[in-house]
Design brief:
The protein has about 600 residues and is α+β, with helices and mostly antiparallel strands. It contains 20 helices and 27 strands. It has an eight-stranded mixed β-sheet with strand order 7-6-5-8-3-2-9-10. Helix 6 runs antiparallel to helix 7, helix 9 runs parallel beside helix 10 and helix 17 runs antiparallel to helix 18. The longest helix is centred in the first third of the chain and has 18 residues. It binds zinc ion (ZN) (2 copies). The site of one zinc ion has 4 residues, from helix 14.
Length: about 600
């Protein structure tokens, strides 16, 4: 029986035709998701000129019979949906199929498909059926789209640069690969390989294929659940971060979704472990009863709503914080490998030259036998180091043991403390380390309501502008709760009579001014947590030893002692590393000592 049912008219009208085909990436998305639905375990996407000349998607899925192959291009046909009601009960990747006629109407399409007996070749140009012929019987589908938008020049103009088109396709392919580690994905542009995943259903290996070995080695496994949600996946160590939020990937029941609140909670969970303007690499798989989520049914969107969002946020935040607080996160120096080079997307290196002539029109069935992954020794070694470092990463350490014991031996440039232990050498940034120690001290003080205050011998007058004064008058409680004794004084001044004991006396005026500044900046969004954090960060920096400031050995020992006791000894409150570690092996490598057996 035909798998394609003709949709009823109402539904067809609801789906704005063509809306789905905006860019090359929307064609790739459509075709790849059809392949997934067809049960493919290998999906190969080959592009010419970032897809503008040609997009060819080859799969080993169930294929179509002759009738379905032809009907797939008739406008109101889909294999997914039978009636309007079905729209609201979608648990596959979404509703699609209706995009094929749209794609075929703005390009030249060749479809070669077979369910395993007789194959079918359908050719369509600008929406017109040119021919239907018998083809190869090998099971699977090849969908070739050439010269996209050739008959709609206005659309063609709208395509962004080749670089942007390829970037968008790569981004999509990376995410679909991460959400389906059990499927082998290949992506090529002008015969250059961009992505190649092994389909062994191992998420970490897929992460390696997408982000490179260096990132994969620095991923921490997460795994937690409650009655409603199960959350698994990987989060990057805080030293690995990116300028874009785009690498926080959330997959809900196998589908990549977008939820800003989840991104925010993930990012906030890293607070003070990394700079606030940088974002971690995170791949989270969330399993939940479909009745608890509401997926926006627009075919091009991936927005999702959770009915128990707060619960999920807490579950994720707790798990990430728990993992970050039980690991040795000292940055390891990697003297010989530059991470930037390795993790740069591969397509950057490719030259994107628009070819004048038409690409060769050759369509053949895939030779799966040739596609076998060749397991060479390099590959095995890479995976071994991947899993070795994973074992290291997943070691849960007690709080005191996370930051290893180390012994200071000297200072470079009055700034970097050199320490050593049996494992190797540490460099500690004295300012960053002291900032961290101070920060945690001030956070404790600020969070504790039972403070006492000290009277000032001479009260301090703080003059403000009229607008500052008006704003601050409504917020004097914030200062009073911190155990400042402040009064209004004249038209636009404050009189400070007492200050909390933990605040150094010669710093009262400066700090009050800064506090007022922060209160004014935050305005309506004022929250005491954020305020405390900002105050603690600001004061921790002001009162830290500066770079180039002399400190004696005793102070250094105290600093290392205090740092090791911190909740997060690895970063300053701004997210910079406090400590960098060189293993003995790294040192030997730097001096070309390793490998020379007879070296003394
Ligand atoms: Zn600082
Ligand atoms: Zn800092």
């Amino acid at each position: 029986m035909s798998k394609i049912h003709v949709m009823d008219e109402i539904l067809a009208n609801k789906i704005a035709a063509g809306e789905v085909v905006e860019r090359c990436s929307s064609v790739v998305k459509e075709l790849v998701e059809n392949s997934i639905d067809a049960g493919a375990t290998l999906i190969k996407v080959e592009l010419k000129e970032a897809g503008t000349k040609e997009i060819k998607v080859t799969d080993n899925g169930s294929g179509m019979d002759r009738e379905d192959a032809v009907q797939a291009f008739s406008r109101h046909a889909t294999s997914k949906l039978i009636s309007e009601d079905d729209l609201y009960r979608i648990d596959t990747l979404g509703f699609r199929g209706e995009a094929l006629p749209s794609i075929a109407s703005v390009s030249e399409v060749t479809l070669i498909t077979s369910t395993g007996d007789v194959g079918t070749i359908v050719k369509i140009s600008g929406g017109k059926l040119l021919s239907v012929e018998n083809g190869d019987a090998r099971k699977g589908t090849i969908f070739q789209v050439q010269n996209l938008f050739y008959n709609t020049p206005a659309r063609l103009k709208h395509l962004k640069s080749l670089y942007a088109e390829l970037g968008s396709i790569t981004d999509y392919m990376n995410k679909i690969a991460l959400s389906h580690p059990d499927i082998q994905f290949r992506l090529y542009n002008n015969d250059n390989e961009i992505l190649n995943t092994d389909g062994t259903n191992h998420l970490l290996k897929t992460i390696k294929a997408v982000y490179g070995l260096n990132v994969a080695r620095k991923m921490i496994e997460v795994n937690t659940s409650d009655e409603d949600y199960k959350v698994t996946g990987y989060i990057s160590m805080p030293e690995v971060h990116r300028s874009s939020r785009n690498h926080m990937v959330t997959i809900v029941n196998g589908r990549v979704v977008r939820n800003q609140e989840l991104n925010r909670i993930i990012n906030d969970s890293y607070h003070s472990f990394k700079p606030d303007t940088r974002y971690p690499i995170v791949v989270l798989e969330i399993e939940v009863d479909p009745s608890l989520v509401d997926v926006n049914i627009h075919p091009t969107k991936m927005d999702i709503k959770f009915s128990k969002l707060e619960e999920l946020k807490e579950l994720i935040a707790n798990e990430i914080q728990n993992k970050l607080h039980h690991k040795n996160l000292v940055v390891k120096a990697e003297p010989t490998v530059s991470e930037e080079v390795i993790t740069k997307p591969k397509y950057v290196e490719q030259t994107l030259v628009l070819e004048k002539e038409m690409p060769e029109q050759k369509v053949t069935f895939p030779e799966w036998e040739e596609e076998e992954i060749i397991v060479n020794s390099d590959f095995v070694n890479e995976d071994e180091t991947l899993f070795e470092s994973q074992n290291e990463n997943n070691q849960e350490l007690e709080m005191e043991k996370r930051m290893p014991e180390m012994y200071p031996v000297g200072i470079v440039h009055g700034t970097y403390i050199i320490c050593q232990n049996e494992e190797g050498m540490f460099l500690i940034d004295q300012h960053a380390a002291k900032e961290r120690v101070n920060y945690e001290y001030y956070m404790k003080k600020l969070g504790n309501p039972n403070q006492i205050s000290t009277p000032l011998l001479f009260p301090i007058t703080i003059e403000l502008s009229t607008s500052e004064f008006i704003l601050i008058k409504g917020k004097l409680d914030v200062l009073r709760n911190m155990k400042f004794v402040v009064e209004e004084f004249g038209y636009q001044s404050l009189l400070v009579k007492e200050h909390p004991t933990w605040l150094p006396k010669d710093y009262v005026e400066d700090s009050i001014r800064k506090m007022i500044e922060i209160i004014i900046q935050e305005g309506k969004h004022f929250s005491i947590e954020k305020f405390n954090e900002k105050i603690a960060t600001m004061m921790s920096c002001k009162h830290a030893i500066k770079a180039n400031q002399y400190v004696d050995m005793k102070e250094i020992e105290q600093l290392i002692f205090d740092l090791r006791k911190c909740d997060n000894p690895f970063n300053c409150p701004h997210g910079r590393p406090t400590t960098v570690f060189f293993t003995n092996y790294d040192l030997e490598k730097l001096f070309k000592r390793s490998g020379f057996e007879n070296l003394k």
